[in-house]
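Protocol step 4 of 6: structure prediction from sequence.
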Amino acid sequence: MTRGIHHNRGFSLLEVLVAFSIFAISLGVLFQIYHKGTQSAILSDEYTRAILIAQSKMASAGIEDDFEIGEYNSVESDLYSWVTRVRPYSDGQNLNSNTNMTVREIEVTVYWDSLGRSRSVKLSTLKLIPMI
C-alpha cells in the first residue's frame, strides 16, 4: 500500500483577503448607487411639490387672492415658502379700450432647503383681468 502525497484543500489567507476586499469595494459602490438614487427620488419629489404649489398660486391669483400689483408671500407646509409678484405688463401694444381688460404678469417663486442647499422654482405667466 502506497500513500500518495496529501494535498491540503481550501483557500489560502491571501485568497480570502482578496475576495473579501473585492466584496467590500463592490458593496461600497452598490451603497453609493442606492444613496444617489434615493437622493434623486427625494429631490424629484420636492421639485414636483414646489411646482404644484407654484401652479396653485398662479391659478388662484385673481380668483382667491387679491390681484393688486405688488408682492405676496407665505409659508406652505413648513418646508416651502413662496413669493407671488404681480406686475403690470406692457409689450408696446395696447389692448383695445373697448375690452376693459388689462394684462398682468404673475411670477411665483417657491423656495425650500434640501440636501444642504437652497433650492427654488420660478413660474411666470400673463393674465388678462377685467379693469374695475
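Step 5 (inspection) to follow. The chain has one helix and four strands.
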